[in-house]
Amino acid sequence: MLLRPKTPVASVQQDTGAAVVMVIPAFLGLLAFVAVPFLLAIFLSTQNLHFGSGLGPTWMGLEQYRRLLLDPLFSADFYRALINNATFAVVVVPAQTGLALAIALLLNRSLRGMPIFRTFFFMPVVFPMALVSVIWKLIYAPDDVGMLNTVLKVVSFGHIQPHDFLGDPKTAMAAIIVTSIWSGVGFQMVILLAGLQSISGSLYEAAAIDKAGKWQQFWNITMPGLRNTLVFVVMVTTILSLRLFDQVYIMTRGGPLNATTTVMYQAVTAAFDRGNIGNAAAITVVFFVLVLAIALIQRWFLREEREIA
Amino acid sequence: MGQFGPNGPGCFGQAQIGGTTTEVDNVKPGSRLASTTAAFALLLAVGCGGGTTNATVNGGSGKGTIVVWADQSQSGQDKATQAEVAAFNASQTDVKAVLKFIPDADLDKTNQATSPKELGDVVQVDGPYMQAWIREGKLGPINGLVSAQTIQNQIPSVIAQDTVNGKLYMVAQIDSGLGIYGNKALLGAAGITYPTGLDNVWTADQFTADLAKLAAKNPSGKALDLKLNYQGEWPTYGFLPIVYSAGSTVMTGGKAAGHLDSTQVVAAAKTFASWKPYVDANTDDSAFVKGRVAMSWVGHWVYPAYSKALGSNLVVMPLPDFGNGTKTGQGSIAWGINTSRGNGKAAAKLLDFFANDANVTDYTSGAVDGDGAVPATKTALAESTLYAPSGPLYLFAQQLNKTCGSGPATKDCVAVPRPQTPGYPVISSDFSAAWFNIFNGADPQAELTKAAQLIDTDFQDNGGYQLSG
What we know:
The complex is a heterodimer. By secondary structure, chain A is an all-alpha fold. Chain A is 74% helix and 1% strand.
């Protein structure tokens, strides 16, 4: 239907005016909660300030950054945190997405009771991460007190000895990864499920008529059809995985021996355990730059593929 | 995302804006944007208005409502605090006290992150952190506010803890005791001769050997509980005495390098780390009570629960001697006044009430279960059954009696206060991180040297944390 505009110029002005007014609340929110704190963080990273202190800040220039990036006393922990974050992202993004895809494929049938299954797979997402961490900390508890140790012992008829999963530098990160995947897979699953259901069923029928096998159908129909959804899921999961904090704070406190420390954990403990706001602000600014770079790189790569599809 | 403390960062918490309503069409968007931004900037300026000075502000009229921030710890202690505040409110009408609890594990962090204006009028503060809060303007001197009788009745160790530059800043209901609780039955079964007082303490090597013996006899393979599940200040309180017992100090002459990482401390740390196979992770906080371990290295606050579980089987022993005599911790939470809020006189009335004998006795061992702490008043201590020479916790009173005070830790003195400096939060944080890394297998020398350097750098940044006046 075509509505004839009064005059093109006047209507554009009216539209722009209305649009700006509608955008203002969100814009102010962004300003107040993102832009202002970010600018303040940049300012604070040049100061020496104790949290909640009645004393004012004192100028420190770029000293915080020099320490964080160059001084081995401070930078060793920071670089270890970056490595841990990278390890976590590199493992979790493919594993969690792959698992979510597998589950979504399984759940994409019209069997009776399917909504119940979908609910159960989604439920872990509903629990707050702090709660999940507390429960899994008990599951991973060392000695015979821990659930996982007891289960392994029973299943292996006593051959597998109790292991301190969270206290062993070699297994601590893996333990946190498992917890995170368990908690987050439902979220991707639901999104991928929606993507799967948007693929037209007639494509599968046509393929079946042409005697295409299940595997061929998967690669040639499902995957291309899911491409946009997958791109979204991968990007979101990557950004969210860089945020790793709750599990570390509750389950391992960055240990053992820095095996699970992350950048967010370092920023928070610098601010609240040591009261060193300048240091914490510097960490967050550096991290922001890194995350922005990753997001931009990802967007550039994945965008290309989208245009081809 | 996680919450950051009960009040959020000071002024930002006040500058939040809810959704703004928009009226369509009539108002030019540009001017609306300008005016709202201006309003926001104004809010920010007002909300962040001014730091506070450390100077004693007018004590107020001695009447009105005061806010009390208390430590929430063992249930006995909490019930006692609630009962005392209620009794205070019932006993007079001039001052009304409103009680607010802060969880123990977050007490120091919360006090740190809250600005003086938002902190309560009366604050329960962890002793060694007192100087840091004074420096930040959160505590003021109470000499003229609290009655002289209250001050005279306080025991010497808490007066030493609560005094800086000749001025008193806090009064206490308790001082702390730290030792090793033992299960007599399990100790006897393994044939361990254990110390019966301060005269026949373990040496570190004997203690290690005994741990092995106990673990061998125990189906769980564990012998010791170090309260690894405790957070917050515990690692420093519980294990810093080892530094002094090893014959070193944490900082001397304003420097930690060469002291915290000296050879004696490194050797002691290695010994401590060698205990790891015998230590229960205590995830359910009941390793000792359930008999999984024979010994528990912890402070006075577990006494009610332990004595209930073990009865006459419970024995309290001093910490092992790492070369310079047995050393133990002292210092605990005490009540201070946030004079910057201008309610000093009213707050002091509550402090006088807290520190009277009835309440001190009640808090430590009275009808509401108490918490086993050492009473901080001379009269209450003298009358206490727990701390009498024939009482079960006499060891703690003895240890405090032999405090090293602010002097060097000699072989004979026992209780050592934690470093008294405004930079204490950093010392505590870096020490406990290093100590647990060592416990989990890191190189002791590297970790302690790093902790010392971090502490020194922070002290340098803050001009040595001088406390003016």
